[in-house]
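Hey, can you fold this one?
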Amino acid sequence: MRCVTGVVFLLFWMSVSSVWAVPKEIDKYRCKDCHRFSSKEKPAKKGPDLFYAGDKFLKNWLKEFLQSPVIIRKVVYVQDLDYSGGRPEANQLHLALAKDESERISDFLITFRLSDLEKGKIDGELLSKGERARAKILFERNLGCISCHQALNLVGKVRGGVSGPSLIDSGLRLKPDWIFHWLKTPKKFLPRGRMPIFDLDEETAIQITKYILSIRTKP
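Sure. Predicted structure:
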């Protein structure tokens, strides 16, 4: 019995350690030069924080992105509020990784989560035509999200600013609950970021989250 228990424990330990082990590619490609893996590290200058990547990104998208990267934010990532001096720098395409490398890094990053982030805020029910129209007005006119983020107009053409990440097809990239919490409490994730703090009630935040999820060129 002791022998069986010991084997089971060893297999469990090996499986857990293999998931949590830092992939060699993190150092090989100097990922920490551009990204933070802990909130205690200095603010990143080029890439988004990854210490809550498991709350934010969909795993399949992350794997595909690391193999075939696209530019999501057209200007260099900025956390500090003091960004008025100088001209924005165009963002560069992320390094493309091999399939096995992307799988190892994705499996590792998806384990990074915030312990106090409430789940289940967004259900799978789509907005009605009227709800989507009202959410679009809030998104574009009342809150001015279109000033910083790219979206689609009524005929499917790209429009909007480039200082924030594009929200086109963001439903294939971002987890719904993360979008909700980002809208409600952006400082929880990025204390010195540019994202405005809106006084959104829960239902409004849900409606805007669902609208953002609906901005798609792909099914």
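The beta strands are 150-152, 158-160. Let me know if you want another pass with a different chain boundary.
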